[in-house]
Amino acid sequence: MMLLLVGAYALSMYYFVEESKNFKIEKEIDYPVDKVFSQFNNLQNFTRWNNFFKSSQSIDIDYYTPYEGQGSAISYVDSKKDTNGEMFIRYENPNTTLRYQLFEDKNENPTLVDVKFKALSAEKTKITWYVHTPKLSVLRRVENFWTEDRFAENIDKSMVNLKNVLGNKVEKDNQMAAIKYDSLMVENEEEKLLLGINVSTSNKKDALYRNIVMNYNKVYNYVTMDLGKKDDEFGFPVMITDADNYKDKEVSYFLGIPLSKKFGVTDNNFNFRSVSPTQNYVIYYKGSYEGRVKAIQQLIQKAKKDEMRFGDIRQTFIERPMEDQNVNVKLSLSVFK
């Protein structure tokens, strides 16, 4: 009886299920084609946002030179899922086409994926995946029933990750390009979600800045090492404090790093803080940390002159704060009528 069932199954697979499968998936993303392409042809970038790699805490990846473009490759082993594989970029036409070859587990036949990139506008790109799955034996052909759905689900999750990565990268690039030091500007700032630490410390001499450096390192190490985030997955660090507390002997502040979404935090030293959208008076400042006070006073004087009330001041560190070095900060005073 068992032989009959196996035989019937094999016949049905042979006649009704293809030995390999071809399908196409299309997506659009609101970023320029050159910035999108660089996330696909550099495999170190690719594994940061592709859900297959990003979603596993137990995957171990080795990268082989060249690290981007035709000829680059990775191998991976996931001990918990008991899977392994190799991935290669076999062809590259910059900003237009990539061909990947993926060998999974012990299958000697690869999955072939051609990815086409088309600029729909200066800020919008269409991405099309053409997938050709490997030939499967008659007894394994049932896998072809769910291959497309599994691939599509992975792309949906990957696109969310990719938007977050590009959003932070483009925001950083734009902020760096737009900097005009010591000029007072007005900006509308969008809502932010910060993961960070609440601190109270002395304001004597350079004690405050040393404390900021120490706590920045704590937050940065937690986000990158404990949470596994890469630098292009989050924004510039932000310190929030009372606008005029530079006069006080003790200073209380919140120092955090912008992240895209909230999740459970196991370390009680860290917490999330939502920052509401605000209108800000802004000055970019470069110099000693103590020298920022003059720029803050300018912002407060401007608010008083304009008969605006003001709230917290945010110090966004464009370059990471380091002991005994000048700072590069964006000072933002929230104002309202």
UniProtKB/TrEMBL annotation:
Residues 30-166 form the Activator of Hsp90 ATPase homologue 1/2-like C-terminal domain. InterPro entries: ASHA1/2-like_C, START-like_dom_sf. It comes from the Bacteria. Gene3D superfamilies: 3.30.530.20. Belongs to the AHA1 family. This is Putative transcription activator. It comes from Chryseobacterium populi. The lineage of its organism: Bacteria, Pseudomonadati, Bacteroidota, Flavobacteriia, Flavobacteriales.
